[in-house]
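Explain this protein:
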Amino acid sequence: MKKRLMLVALALVSLWALACWWGGNQMASPPRRALQDYHREFLANPAAHGVALKPFTAADGTPCILVEPLKGVTLGPRGQTVRDQLAKQQLVLPPPGSAIGTVMLLHGRRGRKEDYLLIAERLCAVGYRCLLADLPGHGDHPGTLACYGMKEAEMPGVLLDAAAARFHFAAAPAGLIGMSMGGAVAIQAAAKHPQRWAALGVISSFDTFENAVHEQATSHVGAFLGGLWQSGAGWVFEKKTGLTLGSIRSIDVVPALTMPTLIAHGTADSVIPMDCGKRLFAALPVSLEKKWVEIPGADHNNVLITDFPIYATIAAWMLGHVK
């Protein structure tokens, strides 16, 4: 009986260690998303979406795509829809095919730059070129570790300068939009170099990484086991990245933001609860021009594909400030 209990205890400890190893690795080096069929369709015929694509690799090895509006072609259906929605708001829009500025789009965890081609189509239709990039540990980026903004804060500005120099356009004015993990990167980048960015958009991101991990852990296995798992997975994450879970805190830098900032969150988000977004918004400077957007019924994975006109909302925000 005693031997059996020892074997059971050993098995439980081994299972816990395996779960912690898996969790820490999932956070630091998520599985890479492969190209999807809709990515390939877009890449094969960008003109059908009203855009031209200019892929390039930055000096640090970051794979990027510059997406530019095409003159003299019919807009894709998504772009036309956003223009129609903005026209109903009586906004004056740049002519189709023109670019009055640049918007950089930063994907979320387990995403890749091609995921945002359809977003770029919409923003190109209202007058922006868009810069897409694979973040470290994602897509085709040679880096293996995701650090949730703590080691990627310089990337957006560096990549914007690289694209501007290569394709001969002015780096300013520029806006920055990030989703989830990309939102954390965008916040850190905007706080570090506020003069670079005329406007910021953050979608479904966390106030602290520790809060986001805690919510996930406790929702699956309860407070006690979730806490044990979080501690173990956090230790693995720290060994891989040199960062503790508690050191990744977007909320500590948002008070330093100086550019107009929009924060949007789904009301039914079970990955990063809406309260995380509300705390981020509450921490913004009182004097800052800011906007809070709730997307009704949206969870984390469908926040950009509900009936709510989120793209028109984001486009209107950029048009008001990146010009």
